[in-house]
Task: structure prediction
Amino acid sequence: MAELILRDLVKTYPGGNGRATDTVSLEVADGEFMVLLGPSGCGKTTLLRMIAGLEVPDAGQIVLGGRDVTYLEPRRRNLSMVFQSYAVFPNKKVAANIGFGLRVRGVPADEIRRKVAWAAELLQLTPYLDRYPAKLSGGQRQRVAVARAIVTDADLLLMDEPLSNLDALLRMSFRAELKKLVAELGITTVYVTHDQVEALSLGHRIAVMREGDIVQTGAPAEVYDNPATEFVGGFLGSPPMNFLTGTVAPAEYGPRLDLGGQSLALPEGLASFDGRELRLGIRPEALEVVEAGSDPVLRADLQVVEPLGASTLLTTAVAGQVVKVHTAAGFRAEPGDTLTLRVPPHACRWYDPGSGTLLP
Ligand code: ATP
Result:
């Protein structure tokens, strides 16, 4: 296991559309599970491939376990990789697939047998060791790929969307198993996904990427609760954070945000925005439907009610702006009703509409 340091990595593909990664820096601690999260094309895979040695950066440095590996060939970096597609050898039985990396390294046969048995046990593959991959389900084949990656005592485990080819139910159960497995092994891991649920569930920390850049790094709860930009708040969460535009107006008892005739008290520090627009960010589950009440509440027109089993999702409009509310199961109201939403001040985040960044 080892610490991974990325310093100012730049990568441009010939004929590509600008920089695939643009001076990206990141530190992954020894034993840490780091998730690279972002939409398609943001540069996650490019970053992972540079760490693996499958792409050479135009500039910057990669240090693994204190060793500069920037220009080292992949097989000399002592890392393992699991890909989205079940990269298993169809003509080798499961046991040979799992032991492949060990055999290549010239590990003695009895040690290979012992380690293969250990990994097969961890990934519940023991009954299948004598089968060919064609006789396995997609989930089992991906287990083989993971087993092969963990037997080699690598310093670093790299995973590129390893769950994305599995169906929803299998993905959920394998996700929990993967989390348990990696925790037990304590191996430093970099995991690429565009699935925010996977990122929140698996990561010790998440690095959110956008257009070749890391825009925020932090523990899942930190990134979820305090998105550094509207992009992050909109990318994490299902449904994502609500954003409402209002105008700051002075009032007798401090500044207020005017939302089409309704208003909310603002933190004193935002008084300097007087007369300007400001964006309120609030999570759908932070809003509470109440009977009636005074400040801090907003009136909302109920448009759609979606019972989701364990909860109910409401689509409402506040001063003509869409606001999603995640409320309890069994919620009863009809489209066309007017709701009163309590807006807890501690859950409000304020953003600069120009830059989309979180205000202190
Ligand atoms: P996805 O989830 O779709 O794989 P990603 O976040 O992993 O996306 P990358 O695959 O790293 O993103 O791509 C980053 C940018 O680099 C994109 O604009 C992509 O089109 C471009 N790119 C990636 N590989 C190549 C290549 N071999 N040649 C040219 N451009 C490339």
In short: The helical segments are 44-52, 94-104, 109-122, 138-150, 168-185, 196-202, 220-225, 230-235. The CA atoms of residues 207 and 217 lie 4 Å apart. The longest helix spans residues 168-185. DSSP finds eight helices and 20 strands in the chain.
